[in-house]
Amino acid sequence: MPDRYQELREKYKQRIEREFGRAASASASPKVSSREYTQFKQELYPARYSFYEKTCNLSATILNLKPDPKKAELMQKNLDVCHLNTTPTGVLSFAVLAGLLVMVFGSLILFALPLLVGSDPLLFLVMFSFIGGLLMIPALLKTPEFMANTWRMKASGQMVQSIFYLVTYMRHTSNLERAIGFAADHLDPPLSLDFRKILWDVETQEYSTIRDSANAYLEFWKDWDREFVEAFHLVESSLYESSEERRLALLDKALDVILNGTYENMLHYAHNLKSPMTMLHMLGIILPILGLVILPLVASFLAGDNPLLTTLYISLIYNVGLPIGVFYLGRTILSRRPAGYGASDISEKENFKHLRNVNLSFSKNIRIGINPFFFSVFILIFCLLIGFLPLILHALNAEDFAFDADGNLKMLEYICPPALGATCTEADKIGPYGIGASILSLIVIIGFGVAGGTYYTLRSKNVIKLREKTRRLEEEFSSALFQLGNRLGDGLPAELAFGKVAQTMKGTVSGEFFAVAEQNITKLGMGLEQSLFDQRTGAVVTFPSNVIESSMKVLVESIHKGPRIAAQALLSMSRYIKEIHHVEERLKDLMEEVITSMKAQIKFLTPVIAGIVIGITSMISAILTKLSRDLTTLTTQSAGTGSPLGDMLTIFGIGMPTFYFQLVVGIYIVQIVYILTVLSNGIENGSDKLAERYELGRNLINSTLLYCLIAGAVMIAFNLFAINILSGVNVG
What we know:
about 725 residues, about 75% helix, two-stranded antiparallel sheet
């Protein structure tokens, strides 16, 4: 009570000072103030958005281009959704300026690259940069829309929770402003920022009432999620019901509306997902990988005797163009995802940030946390040194060696270009074409995949264990709340009710939770609130969950009105949690087919197909290399006889070394696994960064190792097969 009195006193003091023209104190409103809102935004606002704001504002001072009024209005709406402090003029200016810079400087850089590898400048590279710069302009113009969709997707994953928190609070205290504040305290960004903005707009008198401010915010969601808007309006309508029974019925109806609407929207999304996912799979995975089979032949004619230039061509297509295209298609699919359930990333909370590190304990009081980034960098550098060993040995003029007695399976195998013939010197040789070098190139891909996977695994390993434990608690928490509500309904004090529930549910996670709270009360002498929310030993801190935290806060607030009121609140929350869990399981069933298909592509199909293709490529490269050497020998022997072989060599290249080709394909596999993992997690879990990191850690390591294992095995087998084919070919 003293806290509420002080809060009301300060609030009315601020209003009196404002009406008399005096400057309000910075601490006048303990809940929402300019300083608090600004600090909240600075701490939780994405850093990339802040960078984008600064870049757009800087560009506006350089070019200051005015967009079309209709487009500017739509662009400003998207900027407002993301709370971006820039203008449509800044967005247009940045898009044009960035596109021009890429066209000019990118063209100059790609024009000079062939000169560095000893070749003539190529129009293809200049056109690639020029076209890329042109495409950047409309892409950057859509950036506010892209950010707004990302913001909407993150917020939509929290909408069921937001209505749940509003309804839960409104059941025992019919005050919309305090209910929105309660939801803002328990939601994660971005919806928590939106809810605080609703309160902030009332405090700054942009809107006269909390309902006007909320309705203005809901205008955006009318185009995206009508169920959320309808549920919110039902919560508002409960304020005007004189009958307690009808008021509670409206609140129950609000939660039913958003739960049923969520299920129906996800049902339509799941049905419409098959076609775009098939297109993404074919255009982004199957066709590019199958196209790799014929690509070595095309490359042998494309760049002649310069394998580095050929690698640059293919890398621009496979490591730049295709990943961007697949990522764009994936984000388009994700942008249509309706509201669902987004789990919070507990590693962002102050008490659990240390779990993101590798913690080494030397004693009870000495513990060192090491960022997983350092482990990943060590793995990457180690693998790069081994993988690029063929290039290092050649640069050091090391002697080449073979793995068989006939000298077929060589380690390096740098050879002369056919067009040079007898004039070829040691400096003119190109490669490495050896099977040993090709196998070692797989170590580079292992470095990229395993280093990335190790980083995400170590960063999420400790946190995911805590979340799984908390999730088990959430799954059975509805029955625990039901029992606790019954005990309170029987007239037991909350302190004794905790002990009864802990004893009844002994051996479960819920029993452990209430046992911690009971021990804090009986052994440490804490009160009810402190036993739950103490920063060191509180039960809620031990099991970090927004649902559990909000349930206990409702208990603490409603217990002031009597055990019977608290019992009713807990029984209602028990029913809500059970209904939400039921709908969540139905949604998982809807998405099971699509998610299973995507996971099969990530974990098995894509690395296996790519590994086989690399083996075939290695065989083709071995055959081309052998034929090129034979043609060179025949040309030398027939010099001066007018043989047409010399003219043939001018159009027939030596082929691309498997060493370089495998690097391009392997990096593409790592990129595709990353993109598909992010996409599948987004479809299944919404904006759940912790689950995304955990899946990335597993998939990057497993898929990369599977690809390298199959590629290495097939590469050796097909090279032995190629040697048998070419064993009967005699020179001259």
